[in-house]
Amino acid sequence: MANLTLVQAINLALIQEMERDDRIIILGEDIGVNGGVFRVTEGLHKRFGEKRVVDTPLAESGILGTAIGLAMAGLRPIPEIQFEGFLAPAYDQICTHAARMRSRTRGALTVPLTVRVPIGGGIHAPELHSDSPEAVYAHQPGIKVVMPSSPYDAKGLLISAIRDPDPVIFFEPKRLYRAFREEVPEDEYTIPLGKARVVAEGDEVTVISWGAPVVQCMTAIEASGKSIELIDLRTIYPIDTQTIVQSVRKTGRAVIVHEAPKNCGLGAEIASRIMEHCFLYLEAPIQRVTGFDMTMPYYKKELEYLPEAERIGKALAEVAAY
Amino acid sequence: MPARTVYTASIESVSILDEHGRFDAQLGADLIPNDDLVKLYEQMAISRRFDEIAFKLQRSGRMGTYPENRGQEATSLGAAYVLNKDDWLVTCYRENTGLFWRGLPMEYILLHWMGDERGNKIPDGLCITPLAIPIGTQMLHAAGLAWAAKYREEKRIACTFFGDGATSEGDFHEAMNFAANLDLPIVFFCQNNGWAISVPTNKQCSAPTLAQRGIAYGMDCIQCDGNDIFAVVRVMKEASQRARETNRPTFIEALTYRLGDHTTADDARRYRDEAELQMWMQRDPIIRLGNYLKELKLWDRSKEDALQERAKAEVADAVKRAEEIADTPIEEYFDAMYADIPEELRRQRDTLRTSSLGQEGFAQGVETPTKQGIEETVN
């Protein structure tokens, strides 16, 4: 056991998986000698050499496109895209090819890659370094989308993602990279994709979140003094409907919290699933506490945009009193 | 200090058997054995027959949109002829002849254009990727496949095909740059057929050749007559040897022409001159090789008649296999999405419903679900 940050937990998972499986190549911008702009791949270049830890030209579509080829050839590439705002140039390769290869070839060719992408705001970063586009990718059939909210989960989920036979986008909440430490086993373990975690049990309201806002939710719940159940989705596609449904049937009230804009955010999908499965159990309208439907503000105003604990707390009080 | 020249470059263009039947005995010496020449000619003729029948299938409503390959047979064929069986062929959608040469059964191409994904289910052991519909994205996959071969220290390479229009796409440039910088064993094979649907090549690139695009990436590049099987084979031999022995990429620009429309949904008369088409008809790669074979006494009327009969029969068989393939239940489409089907997708498969009341197995006619009903079906 070691007390690790989320960055260190991911680094450990990468090292352990690379030692276990020589089909793994990691590739991306500045991930080699420099260890990545967030130092997530620190030490890997030295440890595994430039053949397996590859500084590529600066081209996101190129990184994803070549990773698709590597994966089709039977390797297990782990491309890194430096920030979620620069995932857009690779969108074409992800959605036009990676997501469709298995189905369009009826399994003759598959794309077992894991693309790691720092996501979200809250670190006073420049423009296009703070967005939350996870719903865009969750909407695309053929890929899986994962977002951990703790060091322990990050390691176990990343190992599962790497071993998954289908393409996985692994979003890393950069606000949590060094926000806190947690006991992370040295030994190998996996956390299954598609399974949510009940972070805190309660019976008055269910809060559903993922990534960095999970921490804000914990603060809000603590301050509320109420018995609130917090679910961290961990995987946002496929969504663990069962865990959500079981909880909301118990509480009858649901609040969904995410950083991305409200309109067409993943909260809408989750709210629909709750309606479908918990209609007669609901005691209050399902609430969404999210980013606003605006361009992500520059960092001066980012904390007013993000679903911070105070705003979450207000929704909790309102939905509990409804 | 006066400016000095730090770099100069030139582009070579290779032609061996020209449209008038003139053969460059030096460049063409010992390039293709006579037996193989005959086989290559036969493959082109069969592929041409396939193309004509595919066109008719579309026109008679038996197949969807189809992109004619007519006129471009020598390019992909020459490349596939040179490559080893375990080299990757990463094609666009006008490389039927090379794919057939490699061993892809003809019905696969038909199935694809008949709206059946099984046309992309490449048989085991064939190092082919399925047809690529978006323009210019598959070259990156070829670079990745070549990279994997290099990583595993295999002596295999990748060859990727694309058109003139694709060289305007960003991914083309990223693939070229990755290949050159990472030293990947790959051949970029550009079929410059003059037109990207209705836009001529000079609107894609204002340089005099497409081949010179390779210079900017520090890779070898060359142009050839794409309707001359000898020229294609010669430049491919050099390029594939370079890739295999030195991990260096090559960019080949093969000059050819699409004798048909872009696809069956297009009408090329709207944008190109009849005179241009007529000129390129004279450069037809099949006629050219056929005349050469006759000169060498390797071909005659009776052989041609027998070949046409064979082509007719083989294509007819392929059409039969494509049209008579057993229907796939829609459930298999759900199963094809992931290695392990997600729960919601499984429900959609099992009920063929997305509306949750239908999904959850409520009895037909029940208007309002009960709490008990939900408990029973969700748990």
Structural account:
- The complex is a heterodimer of chains A (322) and B (379).
- With 322 residues, chain A is an alpha/beta fold.
- Chain A has two domains: 2-184, Rossmann fold, CATH 3.40.50; 197-321, Rossmann fold (3-Layer(aba) Sandwich).
- Helix content of chain A is 37%, strand content 20%.
- Chain A contains twelve helices and 14 strands.
- In chain A, the strands form four sheets. A five-stranded mixed sheet of chain A has the order 9-11-10-13-14, sandwiched between helices. Chain A has a four-stranded mixed sheet with strand order 5-7-6-12. A three-stranded parallel sheet of chain A has the order 3-2-4.
- In chain A, helix 2 links the parallel strand 2 (24-28) and strand 3 (53-55).
- Chain A starts with a strand and ends with a helix.
- The N and C termini of chain B lie far apart (83 Å).
- Chain B contains 15 helices and eight strands.
- In chain B, the strands form two sheets. Chain B has a six-stranded parallel sheet with strand order 1-7-8-4-3-2, with helices on both faces. Chain B has a two-stranded antiparallel ribbon with strand order 5-6.
- Chain B folds into two domains: 13-323, Rossmann fold; 331-378, no CATH class.
- Chain B is an alpha/beta fold.
- In chain B, helix 8 links the parallel strand 7 (220-225) and strand 8.
- Helix content of chain B is 44%, strand content 9%.
- The chains are: A alpha/beta (322), B alpha/beta (379).
- At the A-B interface, helix 3, helix 4, helix 5, helix 9 and helix 10 of A face helix 6, helix 7, helix 13 and helix 15 of B.
- Derived from helix and strand composition plus strand pairing, the structural class of chain B reads alpha/beta
Arithmetic mean of pLDDT of chain A: 97
* Category from helices, strands and their pairing of chain A: alpha/beta
- Percent helix of chain B, as a range, is 40-55%
Task: Kindly report the average pLDDT value of chain B.
Answer: 94
pLDDT < 50 stretches of chain A: none
- Oligomeric category: heterodimer
